[in-house]
Amino acid sequence: MHAHSAHLTTPSQPGRRLQWRSLALTSIAFGMALAATAPVQAKTFHCGAGDVPCLIAAITEANTNGQKKNRIQLDAGTYTLMAADNDTDGPNGFPSITSDLDITGARDEAAATIIERQARTSTFRLIHVAATGQLTLKRLTLRGGGPFLFPLLSGGGLFNRGGTVTITDSTLTNNVASFGGALYNDGGTVTLTHSILSGNKATPFSGGGGLFNDRGTVTLTRSTLANNLSATSGGGIWNFQGTVTITDSAIVSNRGNDPGPGGILNIGILTITNSTLSGNSGRTVGAIWNLFGTVTILNSTISGNFSTFGSGGILNLAGTVALQNTILALNSTGARFTGPDCNAVTSLDNNLIGTTLNCTIILQQSDLTGDPGLASFTDDGRPGNGHYPLLPTSRAINAGNDAVCPESDQLGRERHHPCDIGAVEFPDLGQAEQDDDDDGQDD
Question: What is the DSSP string of 325-369?
């Protein structure tokens, strides 16, 4: 009995061991689960001035290291690419971006940090973004990307193949491509803020000198598209079955040859708010050619555009162009059969149309016609700044529909009540005193 009694007391020892083992396994499993759910820290790379091999190596590692986000900080300088790295969707200077990556220039203006293709070298674009890529560019200049001579290539500066691209405080200039001289967006999402696309070209039998949006989504805010050229259509923008939203921006002095337009060719959904289109020129139309698309324009100014044979301002074919609180005036054309400002638009009210000659439009009771009372075009060089100030005698002052006016104007100044028609408000005395020091935009 004694031995049996002793035997009955011993099972508690292995029971404790099993309990501790179970607790240990549970702790390990919990730790593994916690590690799996914990946010992965971003890795930051640093490249010295002009160090292209460093930049290529950093992009390559960022694509493969599994980090949630990677950052590349560039010192001020010029990063000159001598040859293509790969041939994804055509030759590219850098490895295709397949991960979540930020590339940031020096803490200075975009001109301080430049990425470029060596002049008169082989054909390649600068940057390619894959469908899995999420690329953010900040304080950078991309220049000189694209064809040497005239081989076919889309997106001389950047080609986005369905990824997400955010460009801030940057400049894309002197890039060349068949479609989308500076930027080609293929089904992806592109956001440009406080940036400039200037001096880019779309070569013969092509379009979209500044950018080509192919069934994607593009948003421009406080940005400028200027002096871009297309050998055919869309000197500034060609929107093909996509969505383009333009706010607080300037589309100026872009040129489309035959058939044009100089400013924007729209075959999709286009929304323009608080923006100025000026100095754009094309054979058929100056500012906007809407072809089977939908255009909505609010509190904007379309003036000083020119066409050889069609409408200097807006040419609408088989689509809808609706205007509200907008100035459409002082555009010109060499033709007699089409109105200088428009051929067919819809007024939602409170517009100021220069002339309705040869333009199909049902004027609302709140619409005005004739001289818009604009001062000379002015541009201080900041992204989105190009605009026409209102003269003190302008009938656009206090003539807008207050219910739909944005809270601020193109320059970021608060709109007074009742608001003005057009992209900018006539400043009150308090605003006038601040204009020289603060235009409402970031420095």
Answer: S-EE-S-EES-SSS-SSBSB-EE-S--EES--TT-B----TT-EE
Question: Can you tell me the distance from the alpha carbon of 352 to that of 337, in angstroms, rounded to the nearest whole number?
Answer: 22
Handedness of CA 6, 7, 13, 15 (dihedral sign): negative
Token readout for 168 is: 């801030």
Residue 35, pLDDT > 70, answer no
Cβ neighbour number for residue 166 with a 10 Å cutoff:
17
Strand partners, 34: none
Q: Taking the model in full, what pTM does it have?
A: 0.88
Distance CA 308, CA 277 (A): 17
Q: Are strands 196-198 and 224-226 parallel, antiparallel or unpaired?
A: parallel
pLDDT in tens, 144-184: 999 866 668 999 999 999 999 999 999 999 999 999 999 99
Q: Cα(241)–Cα(236) distance, rounded to whole angstroms?
A: 16
Cβ atoms 425, 394 nearer than 8 A: no
CB hemisphere CA count around 103 (13 angstroms)? 28
**CA trace torsion 110, 111, 114, 118 (10° rounding):** 140
In total, the chain counts a number of residues equal to 443
Nearest Cα to 244, choosing from 219, 208, 261?
A: 219
